[in-house]
């Protein structure tokens, strides 16, 4: 029996002493010894700290130390995470991974080497030249494939994802849609222009004919007035010059 054993402890202790800290823990808590200088103090925790693993017994739950190279472990001989500089493999911490495996510096584990995998080739594309499918005889056709599995650090690299080869086709003219539209637009504008010109000419012609008609009518009216007016010279009486 430790000296100064107390039943009124705090921090999860069931029993404690002023010199050694916790001596036993409340149910479901783990008892662990922490070293402070040359002295060890008992504490009660809900889970074991890093570098320890928990064991449960009927009378007490304890935290025991993992192996020196383990950061966390399930049992003393089965690590779940390694300390810096070691790689986890099958519960062990190794400085170098076995043959056929590679070190993953992100997870600090030994993992299988993954090689690149590519899908099947697509069908060959239509024969083209400078992005066109017409207006030439010799062009190129291509096919592609996708990467379905990227490689790991030591895996085989990925192959090319596209291939090109020469092709020969029967030459055919390109239908220049843009120029055709432009030409049709120009023709339409020209037609409208011609129609407008003809309309203006017809209007001028009608105006000229109307003006000629008015001139003829005015001329005819003038002639009729002259015929109706009396001749002043004929109405004058002869002057007697005898006297």
UniProtKB/TrEMBL annotation:
Location of region: Disordered: 169-243
Keywords annotated in UniProt: Disulfide bond, Glycoprotein, Heparin-binding, Repeat, Secreted, Sensory transduction, Signal, Wnt signaling pathway
SUPFAM superfamilies found in the cross-reference section: Growth factor receptor domain (SSF57184), TSP-1 type 1 repeat (SSF82895)
Chief site of localization: secreted
A molecular function GO annotation: signaling receptor binding
SMART domains on file: FU, TSP1
Biased composition (Basic and acidic residues): 175-219
Subunit composition and interactions: Interacts with the extracellular domain of FZD8 and LRP6. It however does not form a ternary complex with FZD8 and LRP6. Interacts with WNT1. Binds heparin. Interacts with LGR4, LGR5 and LGR6.
Protein name: R-spondin-3
Organism: Pandion haliaetus (Osprey)
């Amino acid at each position: 029996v430790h000296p100064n054993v107390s039943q009124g402890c705090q921090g999860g202790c069931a029993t404690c002493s002023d010199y050694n800290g916790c001596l036993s823990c409340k149910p479901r808590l783990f008892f662990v010894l922490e070293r402070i200088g040359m002295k060890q103090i008992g504490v009660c925790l809900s889970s074991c700290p890093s570098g320890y693993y928990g064991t449960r017994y009927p009378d007490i739950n304890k935290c025991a130390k993992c192996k020196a190279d383990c950061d966390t472990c399930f049992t003393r001989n089965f690590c779940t995470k390694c300390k810096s500089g070691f790689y986890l493999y099958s519960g062990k911490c190794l400085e170098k991974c076995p043959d056929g495996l590679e070190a993953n510096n992100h997870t600090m584990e030994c993992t299988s080497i993954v090689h690149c995998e590519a899908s099947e080739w697509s069908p060959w594309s239509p024969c083209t030249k400078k992005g066109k499918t017409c207006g030439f005889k010799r062009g190129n056709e291509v096919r592609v494939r996708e990467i379905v599995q990227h490689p790991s650090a030591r895996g085989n690299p990925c192959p090319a994802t596209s291939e090109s080869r020469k092709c020969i086709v029967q030459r055919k003219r390109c239908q220049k849609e843009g120029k055709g539209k432009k030409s049709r637009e120009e023709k339409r504008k020209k037609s409208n222009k011609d129609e407008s010109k003809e309309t203006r000419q017809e209007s001028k012609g009608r105006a000229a004919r109307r003006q000629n008609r008015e001139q003829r009518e005015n001329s005819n009216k003038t002639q009729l007035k002259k015929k109706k007016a009396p001749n002043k010279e004929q109405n004058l009486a002869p002057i007697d010059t005898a006297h």
